[in-house]
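Objective 1.3, modelling of assemblies. Example input:
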Amino acid sequence: MNILSLSYLLFVLIVWLLARALRPGKGRQWLLLAASYGFYATWSLKFLAILVASSLANYALGIYLRRRPTAGRLWTAIAFNLLLLATFKYLPAWTTHEGVGNVPGLLAHLIMPIGVSFWTFEALSYLFDVYREEDLDPSLTEFCLYLAFWPTVLSGPVCRLPELLPQLRSAEPVWNDIAEGTRRIVLGFFMKTVLSQILGAGLRPGEGVDFGFNQIARGWSGFDVWILALGFGFQMYFDFAGYSNIVIGTARLFGIQLRENFRDPFLSTTPAEFWTRWHMSLSFWIRDYVFLPLATWRPQVWWRHFALVLSMMLFGFWHGADSTYIIWGASQGLFLMAHRQFQQFQRRTNLQLPASVLNFGGWAITFTFMLLSWVIFRANDLHQAVAMFRALIHLGGYRQVTLPWNFVRTTILIAGLYFAVAGLRKLAENMKRNTVMARLGWALSPAMYATAMLLIVLMSIHKSVFVYLQF
Amino acid sequence: MTEAIQEMTDYIARELVRRPGVEITPETPLVSSGLVDSFALVEIFVKLEKLTNRRIPAAKIQPKDMDTVSLMFATAEKIGKLRQ
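Predicted structure (tokens):
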């Protein structure tokens, strides 16, 4: 079941009405678990079988670890989950890779359950928390629901049991939850079906980011590459932040507050700040369970830098075993390291720069770097990424533009609108104390939502899927 | 311990906070407020081990356990092992 479909909205409505008839507690947990398994089974019964098997095994591993939380037992649990990921995420991708040839026996039938990397990371965080002797005592139903909870099972946000468990036990939606949940769902649909769709597929055939990245035979000029990087950066943002809004909004309808996943990432003034605003649930997971244990393992400064680059490479590898993802991750690690060096240089030399210069310069460098790094992330292979970077440094090529002008204008307009809306939102936050402005906001919001809904309906005629479903 | 807490507070204010000039006390939220980043957290961890003379198992600690200077010293005392 695609969460952009009408059947999904109907499904949410039915489960919500049934949940209202039940009191918070076991009955409602059973209902949510049945709905979650039903939802996941619509993708494939085989996927569901793997999810259930993983849930049962991880629950058993949690009991085993709680009895004696030793490093050996933790490593056993980690090894199980890594093996699961290797088998169901990386092996199926490898068997379909060009040049592998005929794959024997069972290997040829391996499947990749959708969302496997998201719910496996949730299972791992539970096991780490048990090892840390955190006060956690989920029942089997609660644990299965934690991994399978339908709003998050496909593409996160990556949840943590200590935050979710009390809500699964006693959450009761109030009017504010329903209003906020609905607002997030409408906003998410608008971001995905309108903005991301326009950037990805273009307004007309033969336009859009996907078409631009695939025009390999024609090649690209430097200007083309900048526009494609800008377009893809915003397409990814509207796609995944839109998806996150829909699932966070859905959970909120049931009174459950999930972790946020995006917080205006393109306004970041440093790379370190960017990674606390972009795909936050995963970047914090990597920080807490990979980077910190690894970086504190040895006291030397060089080791910390190494741990940083390695953690970001793992971040890239999480998306897939392609060299482009790993190089993208390494480039993020090196950029974070360079930023750290600059901070230290600034402190050592007592370099005082005006805050406006520091903020604007930091934003410009961070934004530009992130755009360029999307070229590596999105390129079909490393050869294409190299060709596109070559076009960037070939100054003579800037005179020509091979992309359709309509797409160029649309991309610049959408990016400009993003910054205008972000600026207006900051202004509105400052004006919230003013009652006249607050009332004006209330009066305008129905018109804004009506426009958003109209655009969603108009754009829904295009078939669209979320970019992050492939991870 | 009070001296060590003060030394850590001064160290963070002088060397690690993102926004220089912000007043740091032993109760100031550091991680949840975004005042320190992940890299600074590692430096705080290393300094904490030195000041408390304890070995703190990294896998047993989370950023939320180090959100304030007071909290990180309490955590170190709870899970750290005294060095010989």
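Residues 178-470 of chain A form one domain.
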